[in-house]
## 1
Amino acid sequence: MLRAAWNDVKSFFREAPVAFLLVAGLFATIFVAYQPASLIDKGWSRFEVFQRSILWLVRGTAFRSIVGPLALLVSYGALYYGLRIRGRRFIVVSDFRVWGDLEKETPAKGVAGRLQDELMRLLAEMRATESGLPPERARPVSGSNARTGSPQPKPPLFPGGGLSLPETQVTLQYEGISLEGLHTFIRRNTGREVVVTGDLFTHPNGVLLVARTRDDGPWEVLVESSDATSLGLGLQKLALRILTTLAQGFLPREANTFVFLQDKARFLEEHELGVRLAKLGLDSASDEYKVVAKENVAAAYNSKGVWLAKRNRFREAAREFESALEFAPNYGDAVENRADAYKELRKQKNQRKRG
């Protein structure tokens, strides 16, 4: 029983907002500091030295000169938390470290600014999607065909899947001591802010973008070069990876959040990430739409298989089509594409025999 009570106390202090604890501590301190001496001094001689020392500390000029500004700061912090940041989220992009010769052509603030733009764009599109979920999107999707290479259509949005994105602001890291610095301190210590930082450096196959937060990452994207077009595409992929992770904890874990991000992964040909997002959407979908969500996972596997087949990687493609059929055994496109993949494998085997 005592252990359970102690666990409850620890849980309260772990989960209670920092602003609340600061205000409670301030009022407790003022209560102790300004009690009449008659309530404290009971004639206990063994504690007399200790009592006088405490009274000198809490009633002295030094304490009074500190408690006033401290009370103002804590009160402002509690008001700011309650009125401005409660229920909101903040993503702060810090300056990237640019290594080697890349620093001459790609300034660190430029990389951070472009990543901020990509995150803001994705969040803005998510909020636009939130305003209306067209019912015609809530149906099984048709897949891609390995022979024609037709693109996979958009994955379905689920009317019962939710998309209630909280107000989320993306900013750059603020430097210096000011009111904004105090706001940052409050947001960070109440779990309402996450800071993204990273590196940009050369790689044998191009340029590598790496990002991380205090608790998540690293996320890595390899691009061909540091020119504006390649770097822009890499930052789009990096922003997608970041929001995929944040949507599992920092942002609401909702089915349509993952479906929206899956659509972006499809557009960027990030098929591995698309499969992962489809599975997250399946886990978050309501029971009413589980069948649709499973077919969406199958479509993601099928799309990845088509992408591999177009690059003559038929053995890998066949495995993806098999995975698709595990989620939707009657998925027609995956059945046809699997047959085509095995047909191509047999053709390659016969060619090797003749050779």
## 2
Amino acid sequence: MVCAVSGLALAGCASGPRGAMLPVAGTVPGATAVDLMVATTREASPDPGILFSGERGPGLALTNIVVSVPPDTVRERGSVPVPRSSPGNPATDFVVHSARAVSEGETRGWFMRRAGRSRSLLVFVHGYNNFYEDAVFRFAQIVHDSGIHAAPMLFTWPSRGSVLAYPYDKESATFSRDALEQVLSHAAASPAVSDITILAHSMGGWLATEAVRQLAIRNGRVPPKIRNVVLASPDIDVDVFRQQLLAMGPARPKFTIFVSRNDRALEISTLLSGGVDRVGAVDYTREPYRTQIQQTAGVSVVDLSDLSGGDALNHAKFADSPEVVQLLGRVVDGQRLDGEKSGLGDGLQVVAVGGIRIVGGLAEAVVRAPVAILTPQR
């Protein structure tokens, strides 16, 4: 058990030195500025290089952060090079260009400036074992590498960024549920926003799904502007997830789930959770999950099992794989996932992305295709 829990440390984003939130003046040719709105339930830190700690704050705080992404010529797509020492170098590192606390009223101006003609909002909820700066830099990387056109908002909850803090982090996700619901409710009520996509990773998937469930219960339905929920390696009990979807009613958003059957972090989470399967690690080619996905309208599964990940636990493929992060951008922007299509009976089809031909049955199609999307046929 000790070895298993030690391995879980790799599930979080790699951190650089603390103090990475201290703005770095100037830029370099080829660097890209990513303009983020960050909402957090973390406690403010007196250290301007940290901004927010892993402890629980008294309310919701908003910060407009501009991250400088180093030139593509010195960075592989999917990677997040952080400074080895502070301050970082914008020529080689992800660094903060500016960070400014803002009021709720100021978010509309940011949104209108950032969303442009799309008027779309993307809300990202990170997973377990993340410092504040981990979440900021990872989201900036996702936004830059995926090429999304939505205004990017990060919701970061109190994670202590420690492998031994798994129970604390899980309770902190519960602590933050109402605040995330508030963020989504206000965004959905704004006439400036046309549609909302939620992207959540790992334990953040449970938090995001719970917040949408609460909205449905409170309002009688999910706000129509929340059209898409993308769950990457969701650390959610499969039985709990079914109940969450039922509580949302038939007018729920479209769900896209990125899964990997070799996600070692979720294997460990399954062990810690009494052996109940996690949504992000299920083999949807086998029963009872094959039938369940066939019968669940509006849910698609993107199987990444045959792609190698950039981390040892295969837990962050959605962001660190160049192919997948671009596919993610297409999902967020609502584009069609074109590829070879195969009707496989029982109301299910597979779309293979990347020019891999699908032959045989469902299980073989998933094994042979680097990326396969399982979705109920219409």
## 3
Amino acid sequence: MRCSGVTRYHGAVAAVEDVDFELVAGEILSILGPSGCGKTSLLRLIAGFDNLDGGQIFISGKLASSKSTNLAPDRRNLGMVFQEYALFPHMTVKQNVSFGLKSMPKSEREGRFDEVMDLVRLTGMEARYPHELSGGQQQRVALARTIAPRPVIILLDEPFSNLDTDMRLEMRGEVEKILRSNDIATVLVTHDRDEAFSMADRVGIMRDGRLEQIDTPDNLYSTPASTFVARFCRTCDFLKGREMNGVIVTEIGDLPFSSGAGAIEKGSEVSLMVQPDDFRVIKDPNGASVIETREFRGGETMLLIRMPSGAKLNCRQLIPSNLEPGDRVTLIPASDSPMKAFRAGVDDSLEAGRGK
């Protein structure tokens, strides 16, 4: 599948704007982003539920969507698993799964049905109705129904959001195994970073309808293209500063840096990426910073530090600490390792977003 310049407007607002990517057989691509960034809109365009306002979508080398063309969803040879699973409540498991086999010759249906039931580990549950199944079993029925007709692409729209934490982790692994064993190209839409990074070969970070960066999980984590991408790929804060003589001068000291994305010009303002373990927090009656909150999390304590400017950093303490809210402190770099610096001036608020 290939998306080229894919664009969709909701009124005057671009829900999806100039999106480009290719997907090969057996590859899992995750689209990750905040609510309202355009993830579901992109999925609906690929499925053929909505028309394009610009660009093209090719499936198996054939044009499926353009401004003047929109191949019907049932002619695209793709399957979709919805957040709510969309099972027919009045049908048994067998009837639900067999619904996707209507176009297959009768002589092949029973064999294919038995095959996918075994694949999703539901053999013996053919006569049950959806309300008699657990959430994980319902999800496997939805996946079986989708896989049964042998689609070339599967679209997953927040498929694990209705499950509790333990079941979500279990199903994540099971679904990935099923998809890879069938060599099916997959687009997974999610707002869960762990979900996206654990399952996908590549991850696309979406913001305001556009793909800010698309790459392997490792590359996204190590070389984010912007502070927005960095926030989505790891737990971090940003400290404002200015480049001077090869270091970044900040309100809590001069810090070594490496370029996060694009060259850092001499004397330029930057945002320095700070992770929770980058500083040691030292109690100091004359310190310029103040502990605002303290949160105990079992093996660690998270401190929210308010600096002189009012900006805040999250710092992690891995040993028992007698630091309390209101204490004045000094922040000391935990190592000499450079911190990634990004050019300042871009609105990187996680809350910014449009579309759906």
